[in-house]
Every structure is written in C-alpha cells, then in structure tokens.
Amino acid sequence: MTPDPPAAPETGHENRYAQPSFGGGPQPANPVRDHAAASPSKTVLADDAGPGSDRQVGSAGRRAASLTTRDALEADLATAVRHAARMRQAFYVLVLLVALVGQVTGAVATLGVPVVVAVPALAALELGGVVVMANADVRRRLGEQAIGSRLLSTAIAAGAVTFNWAAHPAHLVGGFYAGMSALGYLVWLMHAGNQRRDRLRATGDLPPTPPSYEVISHWIRHPLITSRARSIAKADNLDLYESLNAARDAIARQQRDAAIAKVLHRKIRAAVDPTTADIAVQVYDLNEIAARLAATADYHGLTTLLAADLAPKRIATVHSVRRRRRWCRRKRPNDASPAPQPTPSPPQAPATSATHTPGDNRQEPNPEPEENPEPTPSSHQQTADSRDAGPPETVSPDDPAVADLAGASENAKDVAGDDANQETNDGDQDAASDANDGEDSEVPQGTAQAVAYWLNKEPNLDPELLAEKIGKSLRSVYRYLPPDYPRRPGIARRRTRHQPDPARRASRSE
C-alpha cells in the first residue's frame, strides 16, 4: 500500500494565496506573510504620528486580521489532511483484513483447502493486487497512462469480489465480504485520483479550482456571465467577485469590438474591395480605435443634445400636442354635421306606356308610380340602413337597371358641358386642398362610410369624382348613393322593379 504524498490538497491553494506547503522541505517565500509580520511595527509608528493617520491604522489592522484568519484556516486544513491520512491508512488495513478473512473462509468451506495453506496464498494474492495498484499510481505520476497495470489491478479486484460472493453458501455473508473488497478498491481509486489532480494543479497542467458561484443569483439569473467568469477565474486565478467583474468587462468589450469591426468593415469595403476590408478588420487594433474614439468624444455636445430633449417645457408641449391629436381624432367623426338634402328634381317621364312582347303580342304595363310615396330618408339614415343590411347583392351586368344607370352616367357627361367641367375642376381643387390639410387620413375605409363622408363634405359632388376619391368603381358608388341623389342633371333616381329581358319572357311564354 503506497504512503500518502505530502501536502496533496494544499498545492491547489498555492497559486491563489501563495501559502507554503505543509509536507516539509524548503518553504517558498511569501511576501504577503512577510508584510503581515512587519505590519505591527508600522502600526506602532502610525500611532505616534497623530490623529490624521487613523484611516491607515484601521486598514493595516484589518489587513493583519484577515491574514491571521487565513493563516489559521490553512493551519486547520493541514491538520485535517494529516488526520484524514491516518484514518485512511487504518481503513485500508481493516478492509484488507476483512477481504482476506472472507477469502480464507470461502476457500476452506468450498474448496477444502487447509487454513495453513489458504492464509499465505490468499494474502499473497491481496498483496499482489496492492502492488499492482501502487505501480499504476507511480507510473501515472510520471506522466504515463499505465493502462496495463490499471487493467491488471481491476482484474484482481474483480476476481476477489467474485470469489467472496461465490465461495460462501450464505449469500448475505458472501455479499458482505464482496462489498468490503469492492469498497476498498473504489476508495483507493478516488484517493489516487485526488492526488493526481493536486499534482497536476501544482505543476500547472490542470487549472485551479474555480470559485463557488451561487445557484440562483449567478447560474440561474446570469448564466452567460457566470460561465464566462468561471473560465476567467481558472485562467487568471481570480476570486469570486473579481471573476464576475472581469466577465462583465469582457462581454462589454466583445460587443464593442463587434460593433466597431462592423462599421469599419463597411466603410473600407465601400472604398476598396471586401478582401481588403477583412484584412483591415483583422489587423487593426480595435481596442486602440475604441480608446481614441472615447478620447475624442464630444461629451459636452452629447449632454447638451440630451438636455434639450429632456427639457420640461419640451416634454409638456409634446405631451399636450399628442393628447390634443388623439382627442381630435376621437371627436371629429361624431361631430360631423349632417349633409344638406339636395332639392329633388321632377321625375322622369316614362318613354313608353307598355312593353311589347314579340311572343304573343301581349303588352305588359309599366309599374305605376306610387300615390303616397314615403319620405326620402336622409344620408345618415341611408348609411345606417346600408350598414345594417349588410353587403348588397351582386348585380348582373346584363340587368336593364344597371344598363340604365350606365347610360345615365354617360348622358350626364355629355349634357353637363362646361358647367360640369368647371364643377369638376373646383372639386379637384377642393380635394387637393383637403389632402394638404391632412384630412384624407380621416376618410373611412368602407365604401358606404366613404360615400357618406364625402357627401357630407360636398353634397353636389359628381359620382365620377366620388368614385375616384374613394378608389372604387362607379357601380359601387351608385349602390350607396341616397335615393334622391341626381344621376343626371335635372333627373332624380327612380327605383323600378326588375324586368326580365325579352328573350327570357319569350321562352317562358312558349
């Protein structure tokens, strides 16, 4: 069984706190401890200096107290290491004895080997396993892998465990002896691995142990910063808060360098080729560029610019203007005045009194006008009725009513003449002035609402101009016009019942 190496755990703290080893030998110089030893004399001199040096005295006292506490912790750790080594040696001896007893009793009970022969033979087997394990540990200390020795030691331990389990008829007893053999081998593996890691940290082949970061405050709330701080603490041997500050600075510097590199690459690529821009980004020192930018920054001008935007008068003015705009947008659709009703023109005389049917020489009378016509609803009522009634039914292009409407619009263009053109020009000028005033943004999106909106503003607006303003076809505009709105000059709209075409009537009569 190999002896414990001196000062195994302490070597991991040697780089961080510069403490000496506790295993004997030459002790390295410790300037921190030397400074602490010399600090009492300096403190006495500071007491004689006068009341102005109280702050220096307090800082020196706190430094001496922290160094004394750290020395006490290191001494306590060295004592714990020595106690653990002694207990570990006693554990190894007891485990070997228990495993040996199990193997001897199993060999005597199962194989019938005499005790005088079984004890030295099995002791040699146990000692051989210890020798192989020690040889593997030594070769690994020298930097080798020692795969053969490690495999052989594993095979010997597995054989001892299996023999203790199978050699006893009572499996509980066999399991106890087998468990003790496996426990001893596993404890030795863990101890050998700890010694090897401490040795690698002492030689610089393994990073030092990082600080212990909090689970909620560090790992859960700031996982990226904590991971970066852990890596920095391993490389630079920093403590908890120093590594966190260094990680924040590194992340901020990385973001700054990325922004500078992006702008620099774009500027150079605009002047030359992209390859030259890539070379410049890789060659130029971004930290130097950032330092010069910070040195030449006009902080006074930036502060003045921000102060102008944060002035109380400007904030109050902008806030009041925004509130007034929102209030006006909510109020204007409700305060719109009703459109004046245009004067109805005399109704159009019917062209023929009857319709001739070529099938049976019968005449169908045209519908007579109503004697008591209902009052004409206003534009608001028409808009509400059209809104409640839903979308209008699809009208076929071959419908006579649609054809009459289209002919009426064409006749209106021909008869109006110069007066209609003059009214159209006036309407265009009014629409342009309304667009300049910013009122077009308040035009509703629906066809019925848009027709009602423009008729409220211009009651005598031509249907063609109305269709251009709302971006719809003339047929769509005619659907939502009031019933008293003139389709052609001097002629009001008159609703007629749907009449089938002559060909359809002839087919029905036959």
UniProtKB/TrEMBL annotation:
The keyword Ribosomal protein does not apply. The keyword Transmembrane helix applies. Residues 425-442 have a biased composition (Acidic residues). Keywords: Membrane, Transmembrane, Transmembrane helix. The chain crosses the membrane at residues 90-109, 115-135, 147-166, 172-191. Residues 498-510 have a biased composition (Basic and acidic residues). It comes from the Bacteria. Residues 320-332 have a biased composition (Basic residues). Residues 1-65, 319-449, 480-510 are annotated as: Disordered. Residues 339-349 have a biased composition (Pro residues). This is Uncharacterized protein. It comes from Micromonospora nigra. The lineage of its organism: Bacteria, Bacillati, Actinomycetota, Actinomycetes, Micromonosporales.
